[in-house]
Structures are given as C-alpha cells and as structure tokens.
Write a structure and sequence with these properties.
By secondary structure, the chain is an alpha+beta fold. It is built from 14 helices and 13 strands. The strands form three sheets. The chain has a six-stranded mixed β-sheet with strand order 6-7-5-4-9-8. The protein starts with a helix and ends in a 16-residue tail after the last helix. The C terminus is likely disordered.
C-alpha cells in the first residue's frame, strides 16, 4: 500500500472526541495511533503488510514527516513480506538518540544513518531496501530476515553487494553474525515468503540444502519448476502457499476447482518422470510443526546431516 492511499483512510482527531471513542468501543473504528482511526470496514480486508503501512503513516502523521521510517515498517512500504505476528509498534530510526526506546506505539531505534541509506517515497523518508534488509536481519527472526532478503533479490530492490555495503556502514556490531548468515543464505530463486521460511526450517532441521526451482520436462514439454529438489534421492518438495487457490489474481481466470485439477495433473506428470522417486507437499501450517515436516521428509528417504532444529520465528 502506498502512503498516499493509507493517508486517505485515516480519520484524524484533534481532540479527545467522545463520539469517536464510542465508535471505537462499538468496533466501528480501529485506533491505529493516538488520535488516528480507520473505519473497521476499511481495516478488515487489509493484508498484515498494509496494516503496518497504515500504522506507520498514522504515526508519522503525528510525529512529523521528518522522522525516518525503518525496519519492518519500511519493509512493508517497500512491499517486503511479513512473517509471523505484525509488530505492535512502528519503527523509526533517530541518529540523535543514545539508546533505542519502545513506547506504546513507536520504537525509536538509535543508529547512525548515512545519506546513501535514505530515500523518499511520497514525501516520507525511509531507509533504502538494502539498509532495511540489514536492519531487519539485526532485529527480527532468521525466517523474517531471509524472507525479506529473498524478496529484495527476487524483485531487484537491491543486490547482495548493496546489502553488504549497507552492513559495512551500519554502526552496530552486535548481531552482525546473523546478518552475514542471512546474506550468505539469501537467494532470488525463492518465489514466496513461504518458500523462504521453509528453507530456513529445512536448514534448522539439519537437512541437506535443496536445489531451488529445478526445471522438469517430459515428452510434452516443460512441466514446471520444482520448489525444492534433492537430486541424490530424487525427492521433490512442493510448497503450497494456497494463494494459487484462494486469490483470483493467482488463478489466471480459472476456478478453484480448475486450479486443483491443474495441480493434480501437474503432479501426475512429475511422478511419472524416472528421476522423480518421491513428491512431498508442504503448506504454511506445516511450518509451525517442524517435527512433522522432518518426519514427512524422513519417510520420503531424506536423511538429516545433523539433528535438532531452531524455532521458526524466534532465534
């Protein structure tokens, strides 16, 4: 969501209006910042990322547009994916602060800012994609950080060289090892945030790294690109984010039933290939049950290189 559209949804209250407080109590208005509301009917259909943008715009509407939007709030404005529960505060970076402070609605990060790490979008100052990816890698989970960097590389919001340069300019050294790990792990071949999170999960579970987006063909032609492929045992893991079934823009004019049939026929063609000895499907809810993911892959013949796993949204 662009800041201009978010600003158009805001209801601004200069005073403690009793009518607005009553409407909020009835559930007709959603309070997104002190003195800033949005109609519940406008709020309900918004994605988590758009809600983060709306809260950020509402916060800057009060603080003044000289504040620098950063971290997950800047990521949402760049269209970067959000993994897990949205943050309860809007992140800004203030180079004049001596330490980071989190209040009820705003987290003010204390960090130096270089001009090259700043840009302007619709009169709002925010960190560049590369600096945003580094800030998120320093403060969020590995899953969130990899999803953001994968998206940046895939969408060409930044390059790895720009990511490393933004890290070099960053004054904070604590947490650098994670930023380096994320930079080494990131890939433009992950086609969705779900695939990024699954890659982190597979690494944490101790499985060998898969080949990403491996092309498969039969006598008819190209079947498609497999999400995760382990050539040594002929195993394919397809991540199903369910958008292809639920969202009309991903169905290409087909009905849900048509998409299900298409996916079934595609999987039949994959299973008929001599090099494919097994196909596993993983969906979003499986990512919260890593032991079940490990068991499904083990049943398919994939062995861990090491045991133990990291949690997916906290580490």
């Amino acid at each position: 969501m662009l800041p201009s559209r978010a600003s158009g949804l805001l209801i601004r209250s200069r005073h403690d209006d009793p009518a607005e407080r009553r409407a909020h109590a009835r559930g007709e208005l959603v309070r997104v910042a002190p003195g800033r509301y949005v109609r519940a009917a406008d709020w309900a259909p918004l994605s988590p990322e758009d809600r983060v943008v709306l809260r950020a715009v509402a916060t800057l509407d009060r603080l003044g547009r000289t504040a620098v939007v950063s971290h997950v709030a800047a990521g949402a404005m760049w269209g970067m994916p959000l993994v897990g529960v949205p943050p309860s505060t809007t992140s800004i970076t203030d180079p004049d602060r001596g330490r980071t402070h989190t209040g009820d609605h705003v987290t003010k990060h204390a960090a130096a800012l270089s001009d090259v790490d700043l840009t302007t979008v619709e009169h709002m100052t925010l960190t560049t994609p590369a600096r945003t990816a580094v800030d998120i890698a320093l403060t969020a989970s590995r899953s969130q950080a990899v999803a953001v960097l994968d998206h940046c590389l895939r969408a060409r919001l930044c390059t790895l060289d720009e990511y490393w340069a933004a890290l070099d300019r960053r004054d904070r050294r604590r947490g650098t090892s994670r930023v380096v790990w994320v930079g080494a792990f990131g890939s433009p071949l992950a086609e969705s945030a779900g695939e990024s999170v699954l890659r982190v999960a597979l690494d944490g579970l101790g499985f060998p790294p898969p080949q990403l987006q491996r092309p498969f063909r039969d006598e008819v032609g190209l079947i498609g690109y497999g999400d995760f492929w382990w050539d040594h045992i002929g195993l394919l893991d397809e991540f199903d984010g369910l958008k292809k079934y639920r969202a009309a823009e991903y169905r290409g004019g087909l009905s849900v039933e048509d998409v299900v049939v298409r996916e079934k026929l595609r999987e039949d063609r994959l299973r008929a290939l001599p090099e494919v000895r097994g196909v596993v499907r993983t969906v979003w809810r499986d990512l919260y049950r890593p032991a079940e993911v490990a068991a499904a892959l083990a049943r398919a013949g994939l062995h861990r290189q090491r045991t133990g796993f990291r949690t997916l949204h906290r580490d």
